[in-house]
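Running this now, will post back.
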Amino acid sequence: MLECVINVSEGRDVALIEHLGRSASSSLLDIHSDIYHNRSVFTLAGSTVLSDAISLTRLAIDQLDLGLHQGVHPRVGIVDVVPFIPLGDDGLVHPVQLGEALRARDQFARIVGEELALPCFLYGPERSLPDIRTSAFSQFDPDFGPKTPHPRAGACCVGARGALIAYNVNIDGVDSKMTKLIAKNVRRRELRTLGLELGETLQVSCNLVDPIALGIEKTYDLIAEQVRELGGKIRGCELVGLLPARVLNEVARDRWEMLGLSEEATIESRLG
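Update: finished.
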């Protein structure tokens, strides 16, 4: 089975977000939106993932304009990131099992590039998502679609990868500079981080790119230690989207509530 986690640069217009979700309703498992990031994450899974992802992308490009977008999260486009993930029995995948996801990735990018004139940059075995964020259009051209950004939709990063957990930790008692320092100090191969300012809230935004080697519990503890050393405190935690049950079960059950986790947030619970 394939999962697809579509990141759209719109997190404030509730009616529009719901409209986008209905365009992929046959495979939609979850929608997570944030007004400060101004971003919504649509989690899809099942046999119609590819066609539903294309339908959602088509509607988003028709309805949204990147030139009007304001938000704290980095982005290259309206449909900013579209990763395809092959799900094993434990919700995880070994890199050698990426074949189906790579085929879906390339097919999505080809169709969207040709039919919607949206430049698509591929990531996965060839390059990482951060590579695209820093070098798109300057050091390499899109793999599919026009060689220049779409006038309203920008570009799209289309990937094939294993499990990745998006997780946010909000903190008090520190300033923006300290938050960026905390993010830098905990960053490592298995953990990508950003220090962000969300109105009056400071946040360390995390991508756990190898959640078995470095999971949510350890990530939280690394950040909490840095926050304490700088005289701050944790205000709250937030899982973005869903996670495999195996990743949840790596966390001590008595810490689930504090870490903002539950069985209802697993991919398996939504698939039934």
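Residues 2-160 form a domain with the Formiminotransferase-cyclodeaminase; Chain B, domain 1 fold (CATH 3.30.990.10). More later if anyone needs it.
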